[in-house]
Write a structure and sequence with these properties.
Elements lengths: L11 H9 L3 E6 L36 H16 L3 E6 L9 H12 L4 E8 L6 H11 L3 E9 L3 H6 L6 H13 L3 E8 L6 H14 L3 E6 L2 E2 L3 H7 L8 H13 L6 E4 L9 E3 L6 H14 L14
Parallel strand pairs: 1-2, 2-3, 3-4, 4-5, 5-6, 6-8
Antiparallel strand pairs: 7-9
Helix pairs in contact: 7-9, 9-10
């Protein structure tokens, strides 16, 4: 009989299976929205690691409706994973950067697709207000709603260096206001940002652990074409983390998170045709497996150092 490996952290699949009693898959959706850090509202040029495509699929630019994007995703993921339930993941740019009326139409279209049981909304903490949160609270009374706010770092000096255009305090306010409306909150964090030390990266773990939010997505900084970061990298002014460095940091980060926090992702997933460096970024599964192996080798787990305040 195969020996079962103890779970070292609470992953998204386990959380969704516990809630829905079956496999649930996310489908990335491009709603055609933009970002205040790209259109000049709060900054110019966007974050140093983001290109004109952003993190999305570009489907809206190809004329594909939200309904069609979800239908295609359902067919592929249903065949691959035997999934029957899905979450519409609004991924590209800032998906609350519109009027409540426009957003209601967008989210409503997604939820009208059979099998879609929830929304995951990627956005910035400075792109929500009371009206938008009230709209989402109404949806949250009927289905799963997960707000995914880009934090990246709990240090304002770092946010300035990467041209985020918002403060840590903005994230704190958005997270608390969202939680008050019983909407799930996810923080996006990047390790290996320019100028950050190991101690600062782990302090970000302590910061989000103390907020009482529901989940985190953990990434490392990789360099993609057409970004300000690419220029720094090619000029020798930025050096990427090695795979071993990232694995060690991720394990230490995970240790500091509360046991009930869902870790939605523990590694990045760049488009291969856009990647400049590091080359190991393409091996998402290999990096994820290395993190799991290192947690086991160290006999450690999520929450082991939660609240200890030490490294």
């Amino acid at each position: 009989m195969k020996k079962l490996t103890p779970r070292r952290y609470l992953d998204l699949n386990s959380f969704l299976r516990a809630r829905f009693r079956e496999r649930v898959q996310k489908i990335s959706v491009d709603a055609g929205l933009t970002c205040p850090n790209r259109d000049g509202t709060v900054g110019r040029g966007g974050c140093i690691y983001c290109n004109a495509r952003g993190a999305g699929t570009g489907a809206h630019g190809r004329g594909m409706s939200i309904t069609r994007q979800l239908q295609i995703g359902k067919k592929f993921l249903g065949r691959r994973y035997k999934a029957r339930k899905f979450i519409a993941y609004f991924q590209s740019f800032s998906n609350t950067y519109a009027s409540p009326e426009t957003l209601d139409k967008i989210y409503g279209e997604a939820l009208a697709v059979p099998g879609v049981v929830g929304l995951a909304i990627g956005t910035r903490p400075d792109c929500v207000d009371g009206g938008i949160l009230d709209l989402l609270a109404g949806y949250a009374r009927k289905c799963l709603v997960w707000m995914e706010y880009g934090l990246q770092s709990a240090h304002d000096a770092t946010l300035v260096r990467i041209n985020r255009g918002h403060s840590v305090a903005a994230f704190t306010r958005a997270a608390r206001r969202t939680r008050q409306r019983n909407i799930l909150v996810c923080a996006h964090v990047i390790l290996g940002l320019p100028g950050e030390t190991r101690e600062q990266m782990l302090a970000t773990a302590d910061y989000i652990a103390a907020l009482g939010i529901h989940s985190v997505k953990l990434h490392f900084l990789y360099v993609i074409k057409g970004t300000a970061l690419e220029g720094r990298y090619r000029a020798g002014r930025y050096r990427c983390l090695t795979q071993d460095q990232y694995v060690a940091l991720a394990c230490q980060f995970i240790e500091r998170l509360p046991p009930g926090m869902v870790i939605q992702r523990i590694t990045g997933d760049p488009h291969p045709e856009e990647l400049v460096a590091p080359p190991w970024a393409i091996g998402k599964s290999a990096t994820r497996n290395l993190i799991t192996e290192q947690l086991a080798l160290r006999n450690t787990w999520q929450g082991r150092r939660f609240g200890t305040g030490g490294w």
